[in-house]
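Q: A reviewer asked whether we had any structural model of the full assembly, not just the individual parts. We don't, so I'm hoping you can provide one. Inputs are below.
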Amino acid sequence: MVNRKNIKDVARAAGVSISTVSRVLNDSKGVREELKQKVLDAVQILGYHSNTIARALKGMPTKTFGLLIPSIENPFFPSMVRGVQDEAHRNGYSVFLCNTDGSGIIEEAQFRLLLDKKVDGIILVASKYTTKYLKKENNELPIVMMDRYVRSPNYSYVTVDHSVGVRLAMDHLRTLGHKRIAFLGSKLISSGARERFQAYKRYMIDLRSKLDESLVVLGDYTYESGIKMTEELLRRDVKFDSILCGNDLIAFGVIEVLKQKGIAVPDSISVVGYDDIAFSSYYTPKLTTVHQPTYDVGQLSAKMLIDMISGVDRRVKHIKIEPSLAIRETTLRVGSDSH
Amino acid sequence: MVNRKNIKDVARAAGVSISTVSRVLNDSKGVREELKQKVLDAVQILGYHSNTIARALKGMPTKTFGLLIPSIENPFFPSMVRGVQDEAHRNGYSVFLCNTDGSGIIEEAQFRLLLDKKVDGIILVASKYTTKYLKKENNELPIVMMDRYVRSPNYSYVTVDHSVGVRLAMDHLRTLGHKRIAFLGSKLISSGARERFQAYKRYMIDLRSKLDESLVVLGDYTYESGIKMTEELLRRDVKFDSILCGNDLIAFGVIEVLKQKGIAVPDSISVVGYDDIAFSSYYTPKLTTVHQPTYDVGQLSAKMLIDMISGVDRRVKHIKIEPSLAIRETTLRVGSDSH
DNA sequence: ATTATTCTTGAAAACGTTTGCAAGGAAGGT
DNA sequence: ACCTTCCTTGCAAACGTTTTCAAGAATAAT
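A: Here is a predicted structure for the entire assembly that you could use as a starting point for your response.
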């Protein structure tokens, strides 16, 4: 392995021309079986690996794609990223991971950097900035939006059906006798946040013909924001018997504040999270939450992208996966007392 | 942006040869100021980006490196990865992230794949397999070991000084009056696991001249293992007043089991974690734990690698960062009663 | 047997750069 | 004025592939 062999070395060893070697390494068509075997043997013996860079220069695929997410530190993403990578590696792809921190400038810069690196495609978690730079490129580069997307007939996406997720959570709470269900979620800056709030709103309107705005607080998808929103809700002095949270981190903030105020969860107030990050089942009490199949979302996104790249299936597709409900320890029937 | 410009287009627009363009884009030395400006203008106007692939083919750096970790789903790694990426992007590098799942076969395969992709360097979390394939390569490729390492004068690493971490935790427990401190950690398959156990052992021997083996259980760095190890410890029917855990996930398992058995934390038993993953301060009760500066470890690793790549500093270096202790709610003075 | 067709093969031209080399011009020394 | 030396520039060869094209061999068709 001291100095890498090139196609010329193989050609010499096999006693053929480099064109022949190249042919057996690619299409393999139109090469006599005998020569083909000789080449394969030579490759074997010399431990030859074709040079990705040189192939890329000739316009061949780089077997590489980009993955643009807000932040790997957001516990919602690791398993999704893992899903992408597993599918990628299974198909011989390497993936560039980039964090955008929700900044349009960074997102666009990273996007262009990926273009420069000649990736075969890009998977991205769309933001409100995405369309801006995306339509500047009228290129053929395969793109898949993952989780968060923008409505467009031009781009494929795979995401989760939040109307189902919210309905599962609400039905669960209703079944337990809850009537005044508060919603503590994210401001409506992403497709997911919008859909969750819309689904909640629709559900409440169906229930009592109008939405009680005093039951709603909007902030960020963070623990700290969960704390602030709960304090705000408490300050309003409005009656509620349960809380649906926009994600699990918010739920942890909620439970922390309720605990501090001496309000028992789930005995006095039931809490439902959203996402089902790994941590939710380690938490005490174990969090009842809407389980998002994040690994599957990642894996499917990668599969879809690879299909587009390899030309197996170039059509734009919109996939929504159904979430499920993980009923654990933070929800309880109204009026029951676990003591 | 419909069709990318190449260096030839720039040369034509600026009225110079491509060599001149190349020169101003690289060293910039030995080009008349006037021409240099013309070229720069042309680059500006045409929106030219030099083709990374073609440069790489000439042996120029790809501005790309690999990052090999056990799994991004392990909550210990996201912030470390983030540290690496932030430093990388600040210097114009893109990073390939790969998961090895602790498998030597996958690790080596990924390593070779990165080599094929012509990365400028590799950061890896070493395993017992690492040396095997690493010494097969007598190449010049810059390599930095991150967090887990193997002893070798040939390879740089940056890691955390666990003897300090364990001492901080033990001193804290001793100060609170704890005498019988159990250790629930990982089997000794990584440098970190070995060092933590060794430090605990040394501390206990210093204290009472010998190690009470019945206070030690070894398993994996997981929640589930934490549960099993606690059950095992309880089964032994040995007296203990506190538990030092090999990482935070184990600590969560420990606390869960103790809670189920009606043993109050921290009132009856104090628990100290290790790592200080984000979740530990969201947990109830908030976990007292050894804080590992994981972001810094990542950032420093990347900085070190980039220095090696750019030739700024090629010496092999061994850096150990000191951890700190985050005292929160799972440790209490012996005999005190919070009720 | 002769011609038309198909299969195999290799030579050579790309892909977009960097860089050694040589040439031309300007500047400096005598 | 002439000879060095230095600075600036362009030509052309590489880097390791893929692929078009043409040619030669082998096969099929008449």
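A: Points you may want to mention in the reply: Chain A has a mean pLDDT of 94. Chain A touches chain B through 52 residues (CB under 8 Å).
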